[in-house]
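A note from the maintainers: we've had questions about how concatenated examples are separated. There is no special marker in the raw files; a new sequence line simply starts the next protein. For clarity in this README we add a label.
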Amino acid sequence: PLNGAFSKCSYLLTLDLCNNRLNGNIPNWMGRLSQLRYLILANNNFEGEVPLRLCQLQKLRLLDLSHNNFSGQIPPCLDNTSLHREEGYYDLIPTYRNEYDIVSYNVGPSMGEKETIDFTTKERSYTYKGQPLESIHGLDLSCNKLIGEIPSRIGELIRIHTLNLSRNNLTGTIPVTFSNLRQVESLDLSYNNLTGKIPPRLVELNALAVFTVAHNNLSGKIPERIAQFATFDEDSYEGNPFLCGPPLPKICNENRSSTEASTHDNEEDDNLIDMDSFYITFTVSSVIVILGIIGVLWANPYWRHRWFYLVEILITSCYYFVVHNLIP
């Protein structure tokens, strides 16, 4: 487990412990690293829920918890972490890398020329340093065991460039608030259990270069192929049998379906009216016939005697049939 090796490093700016064999839960002291901007714990064996204490890291720009065993729901308060870089910060800031090795000391506000961070975005791993590192904002929770719905407040991370929630067990719909992510360049929601439609307003994300919702349970028409959405191919939507429209081969027949449904409903209504008329007519006719027979038997003694005689013969015949054929 990750012990308190950095618990007193209040000026820690970057904590990169990826590709180790660390396990256990994220410790409580991590929420006290008030200056932390880059937290990378990818490719370990951490477990438990993503702690709410990470929301206390108000200067956090990049959070990478991918390829672990985190469970539970996504904390809705992560929108507290996407804040601007403070100016005039000139304290000595130690930065740590893998295996707890001290790599360099950085003098803020600049990150320094030697400091580098590896982060996966646009389906490729990039190395960031210098000014590009200071401008990156990302959230990667992929390849865990997260459940529940995606908090709509994630759509308030308006400075985010990369959002990867793929390969979890997330349910519910894609939040409409994702249309606020105007700077997002990579949005990956694939391999979950998301349902409902893809919000049409996502076409407003003009910076989007990579988009995939493959292998979910989404349905309905794919957003209009305009702007960036015109560049996404079938791979971005595959594995959703109820999605339709370009670039998928399945054609949406909404008008036809509506017409057929209306026609079918009318046919059912007509059938119901015919059946009601039939039942009414049949009932009235039956009552008239029964009343007619009763009237004839009451007015004519001869037919009344014949009727009871026939009833007696029928009862006698049934009795002897049962005695001779059914009773051993």
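[label: protein 2]
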Amino acid sequence: MRRPAAGPLSPDIEASIKKVVSDRLEKLPLRLLHTSTGVLCDRDAQISHFESSPQYQHLLSLASSLDNHQLETEINNVISEYFEYATLSHRWGNGEPLLRDIEGKSIYDLRGTGGQVKLQKFCIIALRHHFQWAWSDTCCIDKESSAELQEAIVSMFSWYHWSSLTVVYLSDVFDRGSLAGSVWFTRGWTLQELLASSAILFYTYDWSLYSKSDAVDHTSDPALLDELRNATGIAKQHLTNFYPGMDDARSRLCWASRRRTTRPEDIAYSLFGIFQVHLPIFYGESTQNALGRLLAEIISRSGDVSVLDW
């Protein structure tokens, strides 16, 4: 059977590829760790890696063999797969490497603190799962820039949601069945990381998998899901398929009520993504003021005044 003639080709496949790459990167964090080299890459470096990759050459080679629709589909598929990334969720410890500590270096060359080893182990796990990119809140944000910090806080939920895997490191979990005792379940920011992530794997103190099942997502493991429900008080349907927004706002606030943050205002800021609100960040304001602004927004949009009694 003769193959149907291909339709008219795009006059500029490179421009088409660049447009798709740009659209994809808009949904990703500004900086990502390149897992094979351990180097922190900004947008330009991410694009440079892609344009020197076999995947890019593959797309260029298809221009003469596919029609526009087929080519567009392949471009989107290849670019989406190339820029898949893993995120780290953890309790901060002493000596976490910050952006200035790793700029221009490979994280695999770092020596010393537990924070450096943790970052290396995380990137190695991401690489083993075939992700070229990884993101950690320790070193991938310029916390000296107030504008970038604000953008990161309001985008954090989306970044975890768009990641293909969240690696949860529980440094204080040593045995099966002790998940609920981890301090990870008492921290404010880890609540949205748990709810936003599309796939999660839990690792114990020695970087071994907490669950010995072959699940690629621990929230699909029924036994572990029961442990998560008991540890958090969150119903299973939210643990497996959470939607940000105003539904059942009081319950969402109750989930956070047992958690704490190092900076008091963060107890409110860490909930912005869960409620899908976009409010300004004012470090230095009181906890009461930060929560007051959040509650006012929730009531304004949901009409649910019961949140005042959470």
